[in-house]
């Protein structure tokens, strides 16, 4: 391989974060993200508002990523962008921008699957970070995704389990909404869970076969439970908030760990790499650590900025595809339901 420096720009716009990053070979030079605050007052992402905000943010975010990386756009070798899955209006902004820029610079365009990128984020070169070895299980847990993926090579992956309704982050956020917490509620539930009793209240775990997940019934169970308790004591939530949060968190983590146990048993793969915003959760991190001792797992948790939606993960996939001359056609289209 030549010792030439390969510079790739990655662009991510699948949901409510407009992000751009520059990677040189496997190392991230810049990782810029503009998160959209506008959705907080609605308690969830409003697609129409998201695409408008991407439109406003994309040029300054890309300019900043190049500036922070200390390179000119003329030095770029390729542009990688998120093709899907995600919100169509959001994806179109990043796709159109990436196409125009690649066309203007006369360099290759590389389409990236957002879900593959969450998993391949583990291959970003970071001092002190040990990359997973193949085969491993990737578990992507966020506000938009809940998947277990068998990963045999960079581009040889298979989804072996996923949610049939809500994502795990939604279970946090919707439970938070019922409790009157702000959006997104995951971080606050996590914080309060540490102060409460995880066994104070019981929520039944959903019965979904195999490696699939379901969280919509869980949210309803929380709703009915709270409605019932508040009827008897209007101050129930404020008086017991930490215990409620701890019990919610305990149940959710139990669901995730049960499925991981089953997945490691079925595949006989004990290396587990997690990604997505919920991987910030202190309880899941502890449960994975415990799994190392109890079940002989080896677990990988990347730096937080590479685990929530970001463009560094798009850039690393861009680099891996660049090495394989795997480029997109100029008529490539955004795909809201793109599969792994
Ligand atoms: O990956 P991400 O930033 O965006 C996508 O949804 O794709 O994930 C955001 C999700 C939200 O649902 C948020 O509540 C959840 O991650 N989250 C957490 C924690 N930090 C973020 N959930 C539980 N515990 C946390 N500490
Ligand atoms: Zn994501």
Could you characterize the architecture of this molecule?
- The protein is of the alpha/beta class.
- The chain has 9 helices and 10 strands.
- A 5-stranded mixed beta sheet has the order 3-2-1-4-5, with helices on both faces.
- The chain is globular, with a radius of gyration of 21 Å.
- It starts with 6 loop residues before the first strand and ends in a 17-residue tail after the last helix.
- The model has no long low-confidence stretch (mean pLDDT 95).
- Bound molecules: 5'-O-[(R)-(carboxyoxy)(hydroxy)phosphoryl]adenosine (KG4) and zinc ion.
- Zinc ion binds next to α3.
What distinguishing features does this structure have?
340 residues, alpha/beta, five-stranded mixed beta sheet, 10 strands, binds zinc ion
Low-confidence stretches: none
Query: What coarse outline follows from CA principal-axis ratios?
Result: globular
Q: Average pLDDT value? A: 95
Share of residues in strands: 15-25%
Q: Could you tell me which ligands this complex binds, including any ions or cofactors?
A: 5'-O-[(R)-(carboxyoxy)(hydroxy)phosphoryl]adenosine, zinc ion
How much helix is in the residues? 40-55%
Structural class: alpha/beta
Count of alpha/pi helices: 9
Strand order of the largest sheet: 3-2-1-4-5
Series of secondary-structure elements, N-terminal to C-terminal = EEEHEHEHEEEHHHHEHEH
Alpha carbon gap, first and last residue: 29 Å
What assembly state would you assign to the polypeptide chains in this entry?
Answer: single chain
Number of strands: 10
Specify the biggest β-sheet: 5 strands, mixed
